[in-house]
Amino acid sequence: MNAGGGNFRLQPGSPSINTGDPASTTSNVSATDLGGNNRINNGRIDMGVYERQTHAGPIVTTQPGNWNDPFTWQFQQVPGATDAVLIRLRRVALPLSYTGNVQQVQYDASEQLVFLEGAQIKFN
Predict the structure, then answer these.
(1) Which residue from 18, 50, 72, 91 has the fewest beta carbons nearer than 10 Å?
(2) Confidence of residue 34 (pLDDT cuts 50, 70, 90)
(3) In whole angstroms, what is the distance from residue 93 CA to residue 34 CA?
């Protein structure tokens, strides 16, 4: 979460993931979070208005933009250390001095992954 930047989505490793009320079900909370994603993921609700989305495949770009902008990515979440990403039909830039942490990056030959000065990706 980056409250100062207006991003209230849970990031990988957040202590709020899967720590909501275990009695919560879609009969007593909304079936979707504020972003329209399933409210309960991996069997338990997260704390906060956004549910951290996990899935088997890579997180795919949905529009050109900066790596650290959630709207650049599927599920509107910035990829984390355990995520694989796929840059498809987009140009993605890592901002000045930004460090991205991911498991894997794939991109089509015609796509661009741009590193601004001091930017890097660490593979976990």
Answers:
(1) 91
(2) confident
(3) 26
